[in-house]
TrEMBL record:
Domain 6-phosphofructo-2-kinase, chain residue ranges per copy: 19-232
Organism: Xylona heveae (strain CBS 132557 / TC161)
Protein's UniProt name: fructose-2,6-bisphosphate 2-phosphatase
PROSITE patterns on file: PG_MUTASE
InterPro entries in alphabetical order: 6Pfruct_kin, 6Phosfructo_kin, His_Pase_superF_clade-1, His_PPase_superfam, P-loop_NTPase, PG/BPGM_mutase_AS
Top EC category: hydrolase
Biological process per Gene Ontology, one example term: glucose metabolic process
Matching SUPFAM superfamilies: P-loop containing nucleoside triphosphate hydrolases (SSF52540), Phosphoglycerate mutase-like (SSF53254)
Length: 443
């Protein structure tokens, strides 16, 4: 029997066996502009999608832009009657579409991304959702750290569709004026809303206030939010240098580096220096396998901080460990085909699937969100899963992404997406990329 049959992880992705059909939650963002709301909304949905929880962001600004694509700050003045009408209409359209999305069974978690800055607006959202049997979880991001607010202003002025094509300094001034308009009417969540389920993230989650969170899914979202911060930062990713198993076309194992892999390890500090600020140091994470520790050792000599994680070990290939893909195709032809048919869910005999890897990587993701300036040296399947989380790559495509050897990838999360940069060492390496249906004869 193929290990796919009856062996795919069909349980709830959080492993609790709950009836997900009974879950419908609207996560309602609350906060002044430049407090990281859109960043948080996007991150929550990416995390849930990564964990196989269907979710979607409903951004009220996108609805408003249909009629008013690039408004000035005056549009957000409460004395602007037409502006108030259009903004209310955008909110109503977003909520209506969100509830229809729930009715159509397209997902179980929606994130309503807007300022939702008054108690009346929040109560209206709660009542609309309750009438459709949708629970609400309000998430307020509060921040009075001026340096962080200004960093967010600078980010928004260059990435927000509201300011596309505008002079950056003009955009920044208008955005600060918009913030002042909202400050005049903003009402923080307080004891008047004690009957609501909410979490308040104060100054980048340095303080968290939680109220009436009472079910598992809400608790998971809150736990994720407590690990999330909105400070600008990047994550660096690299596979280990070319290994002896790579040269032989074998998978798995605990091989040493090849001579070219050793050359990459020696070149890695200078390659990383091209992508960091002067004087910046990184904490280096590796797997517990020799090829990643050997690759990182010169980085550790320079940066002085290194942490091996068992959770970063390569996908366990079970009985296929140490075989080439040609060997697997010849010895286990049914398995070879089954893995091509559903690579994300296929589990090696006695080993793991990509889905299994995502589950064991969750603590890594939480630590990445909690920390800054991390460089990870690990393996192809592991990097595919981590990259898919940050870049929102669909499950079915993530196991087929090419992640080349001897390359540093820098990912910088921003409010409206993640910026990717790559630096490739001038050191040849075999290609370990296998297309669907091929046996990946190594080069």
């Amino acid at each position: 029997m193929s290990p796919v049959e009856g062996d795919i992880c069909t349980k709830h992705p959080f492993g609790v066996g709950m009836q997900v059909d009974d879950i419908r939650i609207c996560v309602v963002m609350v906060g002044l502009p430049a407090r990281g709301k859109s960043f948080i909304a996007q991150k929550v949905v990416r995390y849930l999608d990564w964990r196989d929880i269907p979710a979607k962001v409903f951004n009220v600004g996108n609805y408003r832009r249909a009629d008013t694509p690039q408004p000035t700050a005056d549009f957000f003045d409460t004395s602007n009657t037409e502006g108030e009408r259009l903004r209310r209409a955008a909110a109503e359209a977003a909520v209506t579409d969100m509830l229809e999305w729930f009715h159509q069974g397209k997902g179980i978690i929606a994130v309503l991304d807007a300022t939702n800055s008054t108690k009346d607006r929040r109560r209206w959202i709660q009542e609309r959702c309750a009438a459709d049997n949708v629970a609400t979880l309000f998430v307020e991001s509060k921040c009075d750290d001026e340096s962080l607010i200004m960093q967010n202003v600078m980010d928004v002025k260059t990435t927000s569709p509201d300011y596309k094509g505008l002079d950056p300094e003009v955009a920044a001034k208008d955005f600060r004026d918009r913030i002042r308009k909202y400050e005049l009417v903003y009402e923080t969540i307080d004891e008047d809303e004690a009957d609501m389920t909410y979490v308040k993230l104060i100054n980048v989650a340095s303080q968290t206030v939680i109220n009436r969170v009472h079910d598992y899914m809400q608790s998971r979202i809150v736990y994720y939010l407590m690990n999330l911060h909105i400070k600008p930062r990047s994550i660096w990713l690299s596979r280990h240098g070319e290994s002896m198993y790579n040269l032989e076309g074998k998978i798995g194992g605990d091989a040493d580096l090849s001579p070219r892999g050793e050359a990459y390890a020696r070149s890695l500090p200078s390659l990383v220096d091209q992508s960091i600020e002067p004087g910046q140091t990184l904490t280096v994470w590796t797997s517990t396998l020799r090829r990643t520790i050997q690759t990182a050792r010169y980085l550790v000599d320079k940066h002085g901080r290194q942490l091996p994680w068992k959770a970063l070990d390569e996908l366990d290939s079970g009985v296929c460990d140490g075989l080439t893909y040609e060997d697997i195709e010849a010895k286990y032809p049914e398995d070879f085909k089954a893995r091509d048919d559903d690579k994300y869910n296929y589990r090696y005999r006695g080993g793991e699937s990509y889905r299994d890897v995502v589950v064991r990587l969750e603590p890594i993701i939480m630590e990445l969100e909690r920390n800054e300036d991390i460089l990870i040296v690990t393996h192809q399947a592991i990097l595919r899963c981590i990259y898919a989380y940050f870049m929102n790559v669909p499950q079915e495509r993530s196991p087929w992404m090419e992640v080349p050897l001897h390359t540093v990838i820098k990912l910088t999360p921003r409010a409206y997406g993640t910026i990717e940069e790559r630096w490739k060492a001038d050191i040849p390496a075999v290609s370990t990329f296998r297309t669907k249906g091929s046996s990946a004869k190594h080069q």
